[in-house]
Specification:
253 residues; alpha+beta; Fructose-1,6-Bisphosphatase, Chain A, domain 1; D-Maltodextrin-Binding Protein, domain 2; 7-stranded mixed sheet; 5-stranded mixed sheet; 28% strand
Length: 253
């Protein structure tokens, strides 16, 4: 089983790396940008192109799996068996503006729980990976959350941009954490924010509403790096519906 896991993870990372190359070589002048429901919720030609590649190639690796992608209108259940949960470009607005903070994110769930996670930042050539029970890695090297308390920590947050009704609470929390921490940050990619917790670069992340493809891969990377990920209410993350997300190094709270 371990050999099969290693081989499957390597094949997934190869596919994800190729998708990262599409991002790097994108011709934005030829990319059509459409708006979806919600404030500043965009999809581009490249989101759709990468998702199609992910769906085709990932399902060829594991035909018994279902595929859940951000750019699909109807999402399959992830409660039984294997499910790929993918975000072709996490940080689409950043991608549109050539603001180099976007990632390809692929989580593999097994019976509704995270099993494998791959998040790739093509701009920095950083490949974050994890397999349940096997630890977390960055470009093949083990990573670990920091041991800093909140007063010495950096808080990174998402603004749940598509849900304007959450803005006031989001920024009230940001101000509260700003007063209690070293500083706060906002990147525009939840997957990369979570990976920054796993790598010990930041200590606490929150966003008041995210979809499973935003956190399916990176939440496993955080927990395998020794961190803690729950909803903002402290409950276990669901992988079949949207929710709030709170991640820490296990010291901050």
């Amino acid at each position: 089983m371990e050999q099969r896991q290693t081989g499957l993870l390597q094949k997934i990372t190869d596919i994800v790396r190729e998708c990262g190359g599409i991002i790097l070589n994108a011709d934005r002048n030829k990319s059509v940008v459409d708006e979806k429901a919600g404030h500043a919720n965009f999809v581009t030609t490249y989101d759709k192109m990468i998702q199609e590649k992910l769906k085709k190639e990932l399902l060829s690796l594991l035909p018994e799996a279902v595929f859940v992608g951000e750019e699909e209108d109807v999402h399959a259940s992830v409660e039984k068996g294997y499910a790929f949960i993918a975000d072709p470009i996490d940080g689409t607005t950043n991608f549109i503006r050539d603001y180099h903070t976007s990632a390809v994110s692929v989580g593999l769930a097994k019976d509704g729980a995270p099993y494998m996670g791959v998040v790739y930042n093509p701009y920095l050539d950083e490949m974050f990976t994890a397999v349940k029970g096997e630890g977390a890695y960055l470009n093949g090297r083990p990573i670990r959350v920091s041991a800093r308390p909140l007063k010495d920590g950096i808080v990174i947050f998402g603004t749940a941009t598509y849900y304007e009704e959450l803005a006031e609470r989001t920024f009230a929390l940001a101000y509260d954490y700003y007063k209690r921490s070293l500083d706060v940050r906002r990147s525009g990619s939840a997957a990369l924010d979570l990976c920054s917790i796993a790598a010990g670069r930041t200590e606490l992340f929150y966003e008041l509403r995210l979809c499973p493809w935003d956190y399916a891969a990176a939440s496993l990377i955080v927990t395998e790096a020794g961190g803690r990920v729950t909803t903002a209410e402290g409950t276990e993350l669901p992988f079949g519906e949207s929710c709030s997300v709170m991640a820490t190094n296990g010291v901050c709270g």
